[in-house]
Amino acid sequence: MVVAAAQLTREFLFDRVGFTPLPEQKPVLACNKRFILLAGGWQMGKSLLSSKYLLGRLPEGSVPGLYWLVAADYERTRMEFQYLADDFTKLGLVKDVSKRLDPGLITLLDGTVIKTKSARDPRTLAMESPDGILACEASQLDLDTYQRLQARCGPKRAWMFMAGSFEGAAGWYPNLWEAWGNGYGDSQSFSLPSWTNTYAYPGGRNDPEILRLERELSPEFFMERFGGVPSRPSGLVFREFRSDIHVKPCTYIPGEPVYLWIDPGYAEGYAIEVAQVQQDVIHIIDEIYLRD
């Protein structure tokens, strides 16, 4: 008898594949909101946790279901794809697994399909509507890709799980992490520092290697890469700025007044912003920036 993956419970699936969540991972895996952003430190185990999140949400999905693994390129979906292929093989639910990753396909006995997608070809993100999306190394995706994925979640009211490490405090990823920290509608963000992976760092926060890294690295770098917390630039004037809200394409309108705003400097740079005011909203339509 073929048992649909959607008929199995989350706990049963985890037990059958031999996965025991670490204490800090349990709230992430138990969260059933539609949009989840995970900021993980290096070596935290983001790929493993992402694959288990998809596995755990399968019981609530449709049969057959469609799930995407999306990254900046196909190669960055490799770990999640392999973990899922191994798990479904252990469960005896696999009908076929492709040898290629571009795209990769996992087909289950009940007709459910899991496929990889590359953000390098935006056309692949507009051909169908999935039931769930894993955004792999999500912090390396651009804002346009995130918005496309949000649009694809609409038809089936799909969920999206994004996992990545901070690599600089600017951009849409840390902005969303900050906005969703206390829960925002059907969205939630989490941080799991590197030391929560006690397989890699048995001593947790006080593991000797973590303490060594903290001594050797700058506080900002350590907290971003290992603590899962972005460090905002010290000179940021408008701390409310969010690239996902305030950055979007705008074009020059012939005949409308153009304003030049100058931030003079020499060694540190000289900037000229080219702006127009359209319906009481300031649009920066070009910028000239030079050093020396």
Q: Spans with pLDDT under 50 lasting ≥5 residues?
A: none
Structural class: alpha/beta
Query: Would you count the extended β strands for me?
Result: 11
Number of helices: 9
In short:
The protein is α/β, with parallel strands linked by helices and 292 residues long. It is 26% helix and 23% strand.
Descriptive tags:
single chain; 292 residues; alpha/beta; 8-stranded mixed β-sheet; 3-stranded antiparallel β-sheet; 26% helix; 23% strand
Characterization of the model:
This protein has 292 residues and is α/β, with parallel strands linked by helices. The chain has 9 helices and 11 strands. A hairpin with a 2-residue loop joins strand 10 and strand 11 (281-290). The radius of gyration is 22 Å and the shape is globular. The model has no long low-confidence stretch (mean pLDDT 89).
Blueprint (SSEs and pairs):
Blueprint: H1 10-16, H2 26-30, E1 35-40, H3 46-57, E2 66-71, H4 78-90, E3 94-97, E4 105-108, E5 113-118, E6 132-135, H5 143-152, E7 159-164, H6 172-179, E8 187-192, H7 208-216, H8 219-227, H9 243-246, E9 259-263, E10 270-278, E11 281-290
Parallel strand pairs: 1-7, 1-8, 2-5, 2-6, 6-7
Antiparallel strand pairs: 3-4, 4-5, 9-10, 10-11
Helix pairs in contact: 1-3, 3-4
